Amino acid sequence: MNYLAYIDPGTGSMMFTIIIGIVTTLFFALRGLMIRFKFGFHKGSAKGSKKKLPIVIFTDSKRYWNVFKPICDEMERRGIDGEYWTASPDDPALKEQYQHIRCQFIGEGNRAFAKLNVMNAHICLATTPGLDVIQWKRSKNTEYYAHTSHALDDGTMYRMFALDFYDCLLVSGENMVEPVRELERIRELPAKDIVVTGVTYMDELKFRWDALQKEKEEKAKERLEQGLPAEEPHETTILCAPSWGPNSIFNRYGEKFLKALVDTGYHIVIRPHPQTPISDPELLKDLQKKFPANDQVEWNYDNDNFEVLSRSDLLISDFSGITWDFCYVFDRPHIYADTHFELELLDADWLDRTPWILETLGKIGRQLREEDFPHMKQIIEDVLSDESYKRQREITRDESWAYRGEATVRTVDFLEQKLKELQESGEA
Q: Do 55 and 415 meet the contact criterion of CB atoms below 8 Å apart?
């Protein structure tokens, strides 16, 4: 054996990760230079504002309006001036009639990034990963970039370097703090501000769910007084709402999975991830053709997922963020498909730990493997009647969803205080 040529698996894995990191960094750097060069010849579209804006909220998609609306509403209530910039021409925010928040569509793709790259503001708040990595560059005229959570996770399931160059992370729970700090140590990055605020849209979901439950209780009383059963007949409804990309249910199992699900005879709601029509349009078109909408099967594309979540009895997903909405807000069971999640090129691959998402899925739900597909109906029945996951939902909910009901106020408190600090330091 040539021992000089031997590399043990641990060292090999580490070297492979380092090589990937170097190659990725060089790619991003080259791409960034090309984009800056390109934008240099489009000064008309990328002209910066001379007036420094206090707070700019940026979203790359209208689907994050549920995260930002509570923040905008609270800023409006307090009289805090700001702007909401969206890359979606049909963003619901554009219909709002705020007095202190100016909502505007800034274009899609590179047109949006051209404006962002010369933005003149004290604070930029966003959910978009990849700041200063590819197209989106830090503007020299913007002092402070803050990222806010749009789902429960530990911050490591993005592509490499996704959150590295933010000044601040507003996170949903304590479970996100240490993984981020560990990445900073490995990459020798300056420590960011990390503020545990909770997550705004989940608070709103919970508020709406509590109100709906109260309404149902009142209706149940009325029905009992009329000599009717407390609840109207309800058809057991299974919500299939996977994530997108190569690790998702549709990409891994597609037709085979949906056939097994439809064969259960339950009412099935299929809700593709909003990115799927963009990234895998042909795959989605093929699945819709093979499993058309009918009395048993419905396809759901609502921008607001509250209605479909509230009427579903069980969720089948993979690693999608909707899992936490369903399990933690509605306190209902779920099944997660084993899609052999690959961590390569993700921040999580740099850490010697199982990502919080993957670890937690096994605690609060039943795994579904490909060999289980023929027994789908029995597995669903078992999970629907099994109360053992409820306690784990409570435990993991507490570690990942902090300050429930307070996220909006805590977020705006932070923005208001940080804005004051930046303005005072600029005047000094």
A: yes
Residue 421 to residues 74, 215, 333, 397, Cα–Cα distance (Å): 20, 45, 45, 33
| % of the chain exceeding 90 in pLDDT | 72
Task: Give CA–CA dist 42/45, Å, rounded.
Answer: 6
The answer to whether residues 66 and 134 touch, using CB atoms and an 8 Å cutoff, is no
Q: How many whole angstroms from its chain centre is CA 50?
A: 33
pLDDT tens-digit map of 271-296: 999 899 999 999 999 999 999 999 99
Does residue 180 share a domain with residue 103?
yes
Cα 46 to chain centroid, rounded: 29
CATH code of the domain containing 289: 3.40.50.2000
Question: Domain range spanning residue 392?
Answer: 234-400
Within this chain, do residues 44 and 145 fall inside the same structural domain, yes or no? yes
Residue 244 in domain? yes
Based on the fold, state whether residues 136 and 239 are members of the same structural domain: no
Among candidates 311, 310, 314, which has minimal Cα distance to 366? 314
Q: How far apart are CA 357 and CA 362, in angstroms?
A: 9
Q: Are residues 190 and 274 in the same domain?
A: no
Q: CB–CB of 24/16 below 8 Å? A: no
Mean pLDDT computed over every residue of the chain? 88
Whether the per-residue pLDDT at 38 is higher than 50: the answer is no
51 in a structural domain: yes
Q: What angle do CA 149, 150, 156 make, to 5 degrees?
A: 60
Let me know if residue 78 belongs to a domain.
Answer: yes
Q: Starting at the edge strand that comes first in sequence, how are the strands of the sheet with 193-196 ordered?
A: 101-105, 82-86, 53-59, 121-126, 142-148, 168-171, 193-196
For residues 45 and 174, state if they share a domain: yes
Looking at the fold, whether 349 and 371 belong to one and the same domain comes out as yes
Q: Where are the alpha helices (DSSP H) in 226-299?
A: 249-252, 254-262, 276-279, 281-290
Cβ-based neighbour number of residue 302 at 10 Å: 10
Say whether both 376 and 395 belong to one domain: yes
What is the total count of domains within the chain? 2
The rounded distance, in Å, linking the Cα atoms of 102 and 108 is 18
Distance CA 108, CA 113 (A): 8
